TrEMBL record:
Subcellular location: Membrane
Superkingdom of origin: Bacteria
Membrane-spanning intervals of the chain: 35-61, 73-96, 136-155, 167-186, 206-223, 244-269, 284-306, 313-332, 338-357, 366-384, 410-435
InterPro entries: Ammonium/urea_transptr, NH4_transpt_AmtB-like_dom
Keywords: Membrane, Transmembrane, Transmembrane helix
Originating species: Sporichthya brevicatena
Protein name, entry field: Ammonium transporter
Length: 492
């Protein structure tokens, strides 16, 4: 967001303009330009949701393709509804506290919930003495909706092909309404309890990726692996991607959408400069270069792993691995530092992947990326930004909210990481285990084997088989031709 310095603490209400809107300053040309900028960033976040859908569409079996898209879209929208109902007000709470608003949480809830004036009135009718830059903040509501929609899509990815729709929808809604916003309040902004003391974030590393990573780990653990994922089963060969090309298209869309979405995670002050959301000094151009440096580092490391393991997935996930592994540092690091950290971070992602495989936890991308790479990225900001000024708010010159009164440190980054993991772990265990013990997490074996498209939507089974060709089932014939059969998906 952007806040003009003279508007921070108190604003004299301008007299109503004759023949014009009551508060014309709310709809100035400068604010209109900001609105367009943040609206485009919001659209790019929606492209990220679509990219996650395409990535998963290529990795699931054909018999689960339609249900994968439906569950992912519904989960994303439920997360978006959640942050609109109460979550955005929880985030705004930090600013109301810094501005000295009486009873800041209650006032934020009164203002920024669906029936509050801030979300029901046109910006030109809102007094800037009480609603600074109302239009920009309203557009930022949509930005937050798209932001947590990405989280809902990622959470769904952790339970692919086996978790029932209803518990997945409950998980996505609670994430968007309560847990993600509360961690945002603590860590993403400049005057939250942790960010005001020096904890630095840029792309929402703590609230989005680390919370999602912890919840994904709990979900994949409690739901258990897909049939045949680790142990042989006579009814199925096990899950294999049906079209990695779709996954590659999803990664390409992600690569185009992410830079502009990230640039929306900052403040722009005219004639002063661009600041990350924690109010550390930054630069628009440097952020763009850093994002591409993260791509380069992640893809190069992923390529080394892919060629070594003959698994193409790692070079593809090098794109998200690069920027997640540097997520708190993209606004403050130098491009060469970001490239090196992204390169190392991809190996952290791969190590997490290997650990999950040994533990037989069936999640090949969300936990390695969001928790493994995310934790590394949380500390990266403390490595490259140590000593940089941060926190507070524009125009405040003294007191605990003074502009840039705090310093970034590896210790505060570690504290924010521990606090986030604790909040995510406790809330995730209560919610996910509670759902498991009540309505259950997993679809029946029969439905899983025949496919969720048929089980949920009554579509006929696909005229092709989703299983891989078994080497033991292939017999040589005359010449160079080979004949074989595919393992049956079910046995009568």
């Amino acid at each position: 967001m952007s806040l003009v310095l003279s508007q921070v603490l108190t604003v004299d209400s301008p007299p109503p303009a004759t023949g014009g809107p009551p508060y014309s300053s709310q709809v100035s040309l400068f604010f209109f330009n900001l609105n367009v900028f943040y609206a485009l960033a919001t659209v790019c976040l929606l492209f990220v949701v679509g990219a996650v859908g395409l990535i998963d569409a290529g990795l699931v079996r054909r018999k689960n393709l339609m249900d994968t898209w439906i569950q992912k879209l519904v989960a994303s929208m439920l997360a978006a509804i959640g942050i609109t109902i109460v979550g955005y007000a929880i985030w705004i709470w930090q600013y109301y506290s810094a501005f000295g608003v009486p009873d800041p949480l209650k006032t934020a809830l009164d203002d920024w919930t669906p029936f509050g004036p801030a979300l029901t009135e046109y910006s030109q009718n809102l007094d800037p003495a009480h609603y600074i830059e109302a239009d920009v903040f309203q557009v930022f509501v949509a930005f937050f909706m798209a932001y947590v929609a990405v989280g809902g899509a990622l959470l769904h990815s952790a339970g692919l092909e086996r978790v029932k729709a209803v518990p997945m929808y409950v998980i996505a809604f609670v994430f968007g309404a309560l847990v993600c916003p509360f961690v945002l309040y603590l860590t993403w902004g400049s005057v939250g309890p942790l960010s005001n003391k020096g904890a630095h974030d840029y792309i929402g590393q703590f609230a989005l990726y680390i919370v999602v990573g912890v919840w994904a780990l709990i979900l994949a653990w409690r739901a258990g692996p897909r049939i045949g994922a680790f142990d042989k089963d006579p009814r199925t060969v096990g899950p294999v991607p049906h079209n990695v090309g779709w996954t590659a298209v999803g990664v390409a869309i992600l690569m185009f959408a992410a830079p502009f979405a990230f640039l929306g995670c900052g403040f722009f002050v005219p004639d002063v400069g661009y600041f990350g959301i924690s109010l550390s000094n930054s630069g628009f151009g440097i952020v763009v270069i850093n994002v591409f440096a993260a791509y380069v580092g992640g893809v190069l490391a992923g390529a080394l792993i892919s060629y070594r393991t003959r698994n193409p997935i790692f070079v593809l996930i090098g794109i998200p691995a690069g920027y997640i592994s540097t997520g708190t540092a993209l606004d403050i690091g130098r491009p060469w530092e970001i490239l090196v950290l992204a390169f190392i971070g991809m190996f952290v992602v791969y190590g997490t992947y290997q650990l999950l495989y040994k533990l037989k936890i069936d999640d090949k991308k969300i936990v390695p990326l969001a928790l493994g790479g995310g934790s590394f990225g949380a500390l990266a900001g403390g490595i490259v930004g140590s000593g940089d000024k941060t926190g507070g708010f524009f125009g405040i010159t003294e007191g605990k909210y003074a502009f840039q009164h705090a310093e970034i440190s590896i210790g505060m980054q570690a504290l924010a990481l521990v606090v986030t993991i604790a909040i995510a772990g406790i809330s995730g265990l209560i919610l996910i285990v509670g759902l498991e013990k009540t309505i259950g997490l997993r679809v029946s074996e029969e439905d899983e084997l025949r496919g969720l498209d048929e089980a949920y939507w009554g579509t006929p089974p696909p005229p092709y088989v989703d299983e891989i060709l078994l080497e033991s089932d292939v017999a040589p014939t005359s010449g160079s031709h080979r004949a074989g059969r595919r393992a049956p998906e079910t046995v009568s």
